[in-house]
Amino acid sequence: MLMMIALGTVIGLALPTAMRSPAPAPATPAAAAATATPAPPRETVIRREGDGHFYAFANVNSEPIRFVVDTGASTVALTPEDARRAHINFDPSQVVRVGYSAGGELSGQPVMIDRMELDGKRAGSVPAVVLPNLTVSLLGQSYLRQIATVSISNDEMRLK
């Protein structure tokens, strides 16, 4: 093995300059930026409101929607109005049983959100449901589980 490395070195040095591969061009600032390590995600702090809930705006398909951040909800749930605003077709004839809550059976229309973003934290293809009787949209685990850390301390929820 050592002999092969030495032989390769000797052959490489013996080749005329014209036959050697050109040296790589120095990196341009744009190329250096393209290979830079991404910055760590920034922390988002959401303060508890007077009613005891945490509220946040998230973009759904590029439309701002106000959510209650609900760590106990298994999925994102949208009001019919918010679904329409986010260009998600809500068809009442497509409503089926989608689960259970403390109040009993839940009926809604399962949908897929193409793009969601909260303070730079992006997710695509987020399962969701449109609930006909919902009064405020819920930001549940189908989005939150894509966040590295979700913690609550005192009156602050931190997403990172």
UniProtKB/TrEMBL annotation:
From which domain of life does this come? Bacteria
Q: Which residues form the Peptidase A2 domain?
A: 65-143
Top-level EC class, please?
hydrolase
According to the record, the segments passing through the membrane are none
For this protein, what is the EC number?
A: 3.4.23.-
Q: Which GO terms describe its biological process?
A: proteolysis
Q: Name one GO molecular function term.
A: aspartic-type endopeptidase activity
Q: Which Pfam families match?
A: Asp_protease_2 (PF13650)
Residues in the signal sequence: 1-27
The keyword Protease is assigned to this record: yes
Any idea which UniProt keywords this protein has? Hydrolase, Protease, Signal
Q: Which Gene3D superfamilies match?
A: Acid Proteases
Provide the protein name: TIGR02281 family clan AA aspartic protease
Identify the species of origin: Sphingomonas lycopersici
